[in-house]
Amino acid sequence: METKVIILKENYQRGIEEAGKIIRDGGVVAFPTETVYGLGADALNVNAVEKIFRAKGRPQDNPLIVHIADLNDIEPLVKNIPYIAKKLMEKFWPGPLTLILEKSDNIPDVTSAGLKTVGIRMPSNKVARDFIRETKRPIAAPSANISGRPSPTTVDSCVEDLNGKVECIIGGENSQVGVESTIVDCTVYPPCILRPGGVTLEMLKDVYKEIYIDSAIMKKPKKDFAPKAPGMKYRHYAPKAPLKIIDGDLQKTIEKINEIVQNYIDDKKVGIMATEETKNYYKRGVIVSLGSRKNPEEIAKNLFRVLRSFDDMNVEAIYSEAFEEKEIGVAIMNRLKKAAGFNIEKV
Fold this sequence. Notes:
The protein is an alpha/beta fold. The protein contains ten helices and 16 strands. It is about 30% helix and about 20% strand. The strands form two sheets. The chain has an eleven-stranded mixed sheet with strand order 1-8-2-3-7-4-6-5-9-10-11, sandwiched between helices.
């Protein structure tokens, strides 16, 4: 398959129209959002949605999120919208928040992985919403990467993973949030966070104080676990080299990583995920800063880009500092733990 890459700096409307037609014709299009790039198809077209799973190599029991451009678009997709869901929409849509609701009969089982619920999101990215409006369809879209790899935040990463596997890739600006949307299950009471993201628990509690985080999302899932939302079951976000997290007092973390790297044979290339505050304390290895610990949003934005950069540098092992699990740090550590396959050493 030949993949058309449309860069929207020139002929913006023509590019959007061309990508929209591909969707209406049953094709698959990668497109930018404020969280990460998505891989979209008509959510109501079984054959089109199946193309997403084939292109990504994604397990069939991993549900997809349905993206809409305008609030009225949600009505044909769900059976009802609870009061708290409406309050969350008012506060956070458009934006990096997905709501789990009871699906209507219009949503095929392949899109929802056979569940009676579906995740709905309205992205804030202008290109994403213009594209969705042009398709005149709800768009099922996981991240635009090969399943298991770090999610793409640039068009170049989409091309690297999906060239020759999809009909079209739209090139817009780099993703601003850098981690996938927060997912809140509104079919249970009180509502429950199934995936942390750019909309933090603290922000959600300002709307409804009873919202909580499912304790299972920060732990290694059991083999028979049935995921209710994307990213809950399978290893995700993983670079090619094995990743290990060193978790503890920052000074002890630095000492431990230096000790580990020092013991590697000289010709083994080892990557270190550091921060602006710590990068100069490491003595060996390929040292890449995620950003400042004073700015966790910057760390979230850079996380997947840095993980992919180690692939480009052909490192053979990666060691990462841990981060405080509060506010967006919860999302950062959720992604890091999954990328590491929960390989964590306490110090």
